[in-house]
Structure prediction request, 454 residues.
Amino acid sequence: MVNTVYQKRKLETSNCICEVRFFPVPKPCTIIKCGTRVGCRLGATRANSFYRSMTSSLKHRGFAIWSVCQFIAYLGRWVQAIGLNWLAYKQTHDAVTLALLTGATLGPILLLSPFAGSLADRFDGKRILGATQTLMLVQSLALASLYFFGHPTFGALWALALMQGTLNALDAPARQLFYRRILPDLCALPSALSVTLLSFNVSRLLGPALGGIVAGQLGEGWCFGLAAATCLPLQLVALRLKLQPAESRKTTKGAWAAVRYVQNHGVLLRTLSLAIGANLLLLPFIPLLPAFTREALNGGVSMVGLLSGFEGAGAVAAALFQGWLVARFAAGHRVMGAYCTVAVGLVGLAMAPGVGVCAMALVVLGFSAAVALTATQELLQTQSSSEMRGKVLGLSMTASYGMLPLGSLLVSEMAGAHGIRLAFATTASLFLAAVALAGLWHRKAARRSAAASA
Prediction:
């Protein structure tokens, strides 16, 4: 049996300060190095096996129950999205309505996420989650009632989609902070983020298929009723879970304070800058995949589903291997490497001659994008102070989900003018060039700072 000791360490460098935390270290102690440029590695050692590093969060009964209920809720959201989009398209027979529904769902995230982060810092996350889940239940029941007992006009559907987007914006920062109160050990946080990523991607694979079956066999109203039923388990579990004591977060600072805080924190500024650049230039390949399939491969809807499945399979693989990556690479290195891999994979997708090469490129893209997303959340949660953590997570939601529609519009305009293959290759090259220039500038700034201090 390996003897372990619990050590309390505060890792500090010129660019980042890790939180004080406890973690088991095998004897002789393994030094957990701190990345002086990008980020810090959490308390996982190379001795951890793949299985242990992946499932360490599931050993905590509360988080295991929460994960199951969260997966059910994710599944219900995807089922409702399919029913809502199909019902709106049946009403209008116009593809523009789908874009309007997407804007109603994602628009509030762009506008409200920083303020939602302030709410998550000021109020108890359990109450926020209870309120948002209750209102999501009401919204799904309203859609079902409109279908069964009323006349579902597009205006009513759009208003309820806007309500869904607003609730998602309020729910996300509080939910991410909630992990820290479920888990008694912060060493399990990377594993918890991996399990959440796995739940989301598996639901993304199964939810649309289930929604299509329910809508086709029973009608769209039953999709809304099923979504309402999936809200109940998560709501009940959130109210009954035994949580860790809440951190003291007495603050009256608003959302703009988070912007100034990030500007003065090198790790957070670089992480959010990478996320913004990736959502503007790289990740629009996901919503534009149908256009790529049609223009570059002359494929139809069945090929779109096939290629989307390969991208989703890569994301699921990333969640399974997340613990292995955490044990070997610092979070900052994972963020940088994964986003650069997305750029290289996007160039490969743009140059792919056939469906087989496209499928392989999409597996790489799904894997690296999921790794980058999880490592970004890990860095933001561990590098932010307790009073600013919710606000920083709100900015992260704006950088991810809020910037993606703008990036999709930018790339689609380039695709309309020069072709989608050239658009993908150009945006990926721009991202790699920007990262290289930023790295050179940061290195020169570090040398000047070192010379001045000497």
